[in-house]
């Protein structure tokens, strides 16, 4: 169950990271409110997952999920570059997350 909670925390991290782009420097109230809610919920779920998962593993997986999702959405939503090297690095993060899952 902790891994599911951690995954949801990572999804919310993607949401708030992308949400920051839409807040226009925290000037737009609705995107700002949604971003702050996602931030709080993400950190809350991360804390819940740490009841049973090691700190280093939980934090690395949480940030890894956030990084992967944010890069993918940056490419899709904002036209950021999708070079082979950049996508290869994302693949390395995925392998790192899988390795942490297998060893925990």
Quick overview of this protein structure:
This protein is mostly helical.
What does this structure look like?
This protein is mainly α and 104 residues long. The protein has one domain. It contains 4 helices and no strands. The protein has helices spanning 2-22, 29-49, 55-78, 84-103. Helix 1 (2-22) packs antiparallel against helix 2 and helix 1 runs parallel beside helix 3. The longest helix has 24 residues, at 55-78. The model has no long low-confidence stretch (mean pLDDT 96).
Residues in helix, % = over 70%
Mean pLDDT: 96
- The general outline is flat
H/E element sequence? HHHH
* Domain tally: 1
Number of strands: 0
- Our count of helices gives 4
Structural class computed from helices and strand pairing: mainly alpha
Strand content: under 5%
Backbone CA Rg: 14 Å
Low-confidence stretches: none
First CA to last CA: what distance?
13 Å
Biggest beta sheet attributes: none
List the helices and strands and how they pair.
Elements: H1 2-22, H2 29-49, H3 55-78, H4 84-103
Considering the chains and any ligands shown, give keywords for the structure.
single chain, mainly alpha, 4 helices
